[in-house]
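re: ur msg from earlier - yeah i can do the zinc ion complex, just paste it... oh wait u already did. ok heres what im feeding in:
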Amino acid sequence: MITSPVGLKQINNSEDVAIIQKLLNFRKDLTKSLTDVKVDGVLGIKTLEHLRLVQKISQIKQDAIVSPFGVTLKVLWPLEFGKPTGYGIRGKDSYGEGHHGASRGSRVHDGADYVSVPGQKVKAPMSGVVTKISRPYRTGIDALILSGVEILASDGSKAWVWYIQPDPYVVGSVVKAGTSVLGIATTLTNRYKNGITDHVHLRIHDANGNKVNPATLIPS
Ligand SMILES: [Zn+2]
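and the outut:
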């Protein structure tokens, strides 16, 4: 979620500091009576005060430093999962089944397909920060219409959510699983004309880069 350490005598890239400031303001349960920090990307006394309080309440080392994938970041924004569309996994249609590991001819399905209604809001399946736009197709009309996002979690897990029209300002935003809106579901019927069930394709890798079956993580 951050590229280098934030805190006293650390690198403090302004984008990283801003993400930590946003997280601190989201976690009123940890910052208690302290008023919001200004999200300006500048590490000041107030941000350090917030960090120390979060570390004290969480009973971890009070060094006011947040490292990428470190314990303070995991405390601030824990790895959590939520339903992206509110619907279940796509059953059998003329293009196959939507569960992880389903047959796709010579290969297997590397994600899980959650049924969607085109136009509906699609929510973050995993807590983290939206790092970039991720496109399922590189060329043609589908590359323009069918899009998605990549999310990085505090422990290094990654999720890709495809077949949505991402919100214009979603890249760089902090998202909470099952709550934060990533964008709007798009229809797949232009590419798959023979009767596909509209869905979002969700792929998840754990912190070590191993593929994980999303259905084992997403609450049903
Ligand atoms: Zn799929």
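cool cool. The radius of gyration is 19 Å. ping me if u need the other ligands too
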